[in-house]
Amino acid sequence: MEDLSEVNIEEIQRVLGVDLNVGLGKREVEHRLKQYGYNEVPEKKANALILFLKKFLGLSAWMLEIIIVLSWILRKTSDFYIVTALLVFNSVLGYIEEHKASSAVDSLMQRLQVNARVLRDRVWTMVPARELVPGDLVRLRSGDFVPADVRIVTGEVGVDQSALTGESQLNKRSQQTTLSIPVRL
């Protein structure tokens, strides 16, 4: 897909094969989903064994490992077994806690799924943002998350920058900074 940020709207309609009054059809959406995939950044899951073995790396683990080696060389078997058990216990506990935290983040990500209003077959419908395809006509309203790279066809954009600049924290009564960009076709 070429960069369409500088191309006029008529050319974009032609390249993407979309009518601004109709939107995309169901079959075309399915075809584009197969062609381009979902509107998401694929996550690579690390191997669980590698994550566990990484728990044996780091300053604390290395210190315990040095103690284990010295205990073995000096034939202090009780120290060897105690420190080895401590190292393994610490690694298992760290792995379990990290796995729980990762599961909690995954659960939150599923709950915070962003939806988008799109025009498909002349009807505005809500779809998960991950199912957007190139050529979808997305309706954005005040307060909406922008669910994908979009090109504004009609309307204007207002941006509340107060959260970015820290203005809202400095003076809650101060007027919000906004940026309005009229859109020309």
Average pLDDT reading: 83
- Based on secondary structure, the structural category is alpha+beta
β-strand percent reads: 5-15%
Within the largest sheet, what's the order of strands? 2-1-3
Count of DSSP-assigned helices: 7
Order of helices and strands: HHHHHEEEEHHE
Shape: elongated
Q: How far is the first residue's CA from the last residue's CA?
A: 22 Å
Helix content: 40-55%
Count of individual beta strands: 5
What's the main sheet like?
3 strands, antiparallel
* Low-pLDDT ranges: 172-185
User: What is the radius of gyration?
Assistant: 27 Å
Summary, kept brief:
The protein is of the alpha+beta class. The protein has 7 helices and 5 strands, in the order H-H-H-H-H-E-E-E-E-H-H-E.
Secondary structure elements and pairings:
Layout: H1 9-16, H2 26-36, H3 48-53, H4 59-73, H5 77-111, E1 115-120, E2 123-128, E3 137-139, E4 156-160, H6 162-165, H7 167-170, E5 178-182
Describe this structure in words.
This protein is α+β, with helices and mostly antiparallel strands and 185 residues long. It has a domain of 64 residues. 45% of the residues lie in helices and 14% in strands. The protein contains seven helices and five strands, in the order αααααββββααβ. The strands form two sheets. A three-stranded antiparallel sheet has the order 2-1-3, with no helix packed on it. A hairpin with a 2-residue loop joins β1 and β2. α4 runs antiparallel to α5. The C terminus is likely disordered.
